[in-house]
Amino acid sequence: MNLHNYFLTKRGIELTNATTGQFLDIKDVSTAFKIDGVYYDAVSHVNLQVNHDEILAIVGESGCGKSTLATTIMGLHDPEETQISGEIDFEGTDLLKLDEKGYNQIRGAKIGMIFQDPLSALNPLKRIEDQIQEVMIYHTKMTEKQRHARVIELLNEVGIVDPERTAHQFPHQLSGGMRQRIIIAIAIACKPDLIIADEPTTALDVTIQAQILDVLRDIQKENHAGIILITHDLGVVAETADRVAVMYAGQIVEQGTAEQIFDNPKHPYTRSLLRSMPQRNNETDELYVISGMVPSLQKMPKQGDRFAPRIPWIPTSAHEVHPTMHDLGEGHLVRCTCYQNFYFPDQVNEKGATEHELN
Ligand SMILES: Nc1ncnc2c1ncn2[C@@H]1O[C@H](COP(=O)(O)OP(=O)(O)OP(=O)(O)O)[C@@H](O)[C@H]1O
Predict the structure, then answer these.
(1) What are the coiled-coil residue ranges (predicted)?
(2) Is 72 close to ligand 1, i.e. is its CB under 6 Å away?
(3) How far is the C-alpha of 9 from the C-alpha of 3, rounded, in Å?
(4) pLDDT of 292-310, one tens digit each?
(5) Spatial separation of the C-alpha atoms in residues 41 and 359, rounded to whole Å
(6) Model confidence over 9-46: pLDDT tens digits?
(7) Cα 173 to Cα 155: distance, rounded to the nearest angstrom
(8) Could you tell me the domains of the chain?
(9) What pLDDT, on the 0 to 100 scale, is given for residue 68?
């Protein structure tokens, strides 16, 4: 059984191929940061759609531009230091055209955000109830009594065992897992259509990680929300995502359903990431290590596949000069033609033929 199917079976559910109800359409979006007076792209011509009722995972190593894409959607960049182009159509509104006032109407109400580090996202001096109520005071006309009832309802929803007690506590009195549940409660307080979760479980131990992912999945089902889950952890993706976008050096290099990405990965980067992931049935094998590093913004290759320097055994002629997305059907997209004859060095036989060619 392959890894993804193993996790699906563990979840005891069939994966749904959610292709309807698109409400976020990211069109040709680039985000550049000013470094020493020059702008460099951290996110480069990204096209991506999110549907209601689905979890879209964005996966890639550190420095690939995942968080920059998230903060671009959320409108969190300083216009003095950042250049953003393209269009982000969210329920008919181009987010990139909004001013701060416009964004404030949407953030917290229609788009909720869950950050990696719950401690820094919570105010240490305020009780949990007040912090959850804040977003309701800003975005709704609920009475104090209604807000309190909603706080208790939310704390129940995110799996807090004694909501009344927790509501009156301060962040430092809670465990890391409980704090992350509070962050999720704040993010979903106004039932947003879109939730962006940036490495929501990275700071937590494995058992708590699984519980938090369960909470996210339940919320997505109950609220019919679309969730963008940002992570470098393919295990988290396998357990949670309906669709996956693989990001490398600011670009989406492959996207598709979770089955397509796990069962039939195409781009050399996707295949390298999967190969570098511990396999349950291969515990004695050495882990594959992707050589080299994600390039810094100033050192981004100007042409060819950006991943090419990390697979130097593949000839330059195998890469497109300006790689484009290729549609493999049923929503499976891959950048550059280099996927067609890609192989790992240990897949070459004595005659120099790859396993791929032999099969
Ligand atoms: N404010 C900034 N100014 C200049 N460069 C930045 C800024 N923020 C991010 N970068 C650079 O942009 C690139 C993408 O960073 P980003 O944080 O989006 O990647 P990531 O995939 O989310 O990685 P991580 O998981 O480590 O956050 C990196 O090279 C990073 O150094």
Answers:
(1) none
(2) no
(3) 10
(4) 999 999 999 988 999 999 9
(5) 40
(6) 444 433 333 334 678 999 999 999 999 999 999 999 99
(7) 16
(8) 1-14+21-105+227-359 (3.40.50.300)
(9) 96
How far is the C-alpha of 204 from the C-alpha of 211, rounded, in Å?
10
* φ and ψ at residue 228, rounded to 5 degrees: -100, 115
Q: Are strands 54-59 and 243-248 parallel, antiparallel or unpaired?
A: parallel
Rg of the chain taking only CA atoms, in angstroms = 21
Residue percentage of the chain with pLDDT more than 90:
71
Q: Are 269 and 285 spatial neighbours (Cβ–Cβ below 8 Å)?
A: no
Closest protein CA for atom 8 of ligand 1:
68
The whole-model pTM stands at: 0.89
Residues 78, 32: Cα–Cα separation, whole Å: 11
For a substitution probing ligand 1, which of 30, 40, 46, 67 has the most ligand atoms within 8 Å of its CB? 67
Query: What's the CA gap between 159 and 154, in Å, rounded?
Result: 9
Ligand 1 pocket, mutate which of 31, 61, 66 (most atoms under 8 A from CB): 66
